[in-house]
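User: Good morning. I'm curious how pyridoxal-5'-phosphate would be positioned relative to this chain. Could you predict the structure with it bound?
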Amino acid sequence: MSRELPADARFATRAVHAGLTPDPYTGGVVPAIHQATTYVQPAPGEFVEDYDYSRSANPTRTALEIALGALEGGAASAFSSGMAAEHALITAQCRAGDHVVLPDDLYGGTYRLVDKVLTRWGLEYAIVDQRDLDAVAAAVQPGRTTLVWVETPTNPTLKVIDVAGVVERAGGALVCVDNTFATPVNQRPLELGAGAVVHSTTKYLGGHSDAVGGAVVVADPQLHERVRFVQNAVGAVPGPLDCFLVHRGLRTLHLRMAAHAANAQACAGFLRDRPGVSEVAYPGFGGMVSFRHPAAARIAAGTRIFSLAESLGGVESLIEVPQAMTHQSVEGSAAAVPADLVRLSCGIEDPDDLVADLRQAIDGAG
Ligand SMILES: *Cc1c(COP(=O)(O)O)cnc(C)c1O
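Assistant: Good morning! Here's the predicted structure, ligand included:
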């Protein structure tokens, strides 16, 4: 059980304390990394809380799940990756013959999961630009659409979607928001009326590029039970060390997000004034920036502080070309991205060093 925080505790206080309870044996202030896979039962079928086998429940994971739930304002389940979390939510919510609505700019892996895996099990989908709420309403098929998937800001072009507006137009379908880019520091979809949130905790929540993980957080206790059932039945659970690392990351989330945003603001400001650079996208919060430049590949290969790598959300800055790297699975689809697009994940280094790095890379790319 988590120690009770005052009900009006603000976000930073919740981020620092959520899910932490002194170890009952030693008083240790952080959760132990419980590696045990099984638990001794005093009599057959008698065990503490849900702890009979570590796929079903593990104390280090429970601590993380309590923390994630406290930050998003719902009931959380942790998974071994963001994709495992997405798969669990979709399979807990949908059945063969159901229809889902996807955004036209989304994480490539989400598109691949639906288009290449779940359609084989009878799921159907439509893709719409969700900035157009009428288009969302038109894509919803009454009685058949059971899920509207939202990603905001979108990836990689960083469009901001009106979550409450989508909820209004979803015709009663569950609205699930991939909150990986925004994080609960900037956006708490359940407070906007969405029924579910998913995360790749690999990114900002973990924040240090050292653990792959995912989470589902839902508003409705019955949906939570269904997600839990899939979590245990399919078994894509995170290991205790990864749970510990993500939970440790959560405690500095608010500070890191402020530094990411300041650096992204500085990089976007520099890029907007730069000849040759076009379509600089920065939604005004978070650490992601994208822009177009004819020498995209040479710029991405020419930075010294920004590392050329996939992924995002860590303390170190990363640069990538989505079309060649993270978004190959959407090539040729309605969600395809232009080849001259560059995406930055601005870390928490000094902003002047990041801007100087972009300047030399762009100058060097000719
Ligand atoms: C990375 C990412 C995912 C997938 O998460 P994994 O942890 O890599 O499985 C899903 N959505 C978004 C927006 C992401 O950036």
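The chain has a mean pLDDT of 96. The first strand starts at residue 75 and ends at 79.
Let me know if you'd like a different ligand tried.
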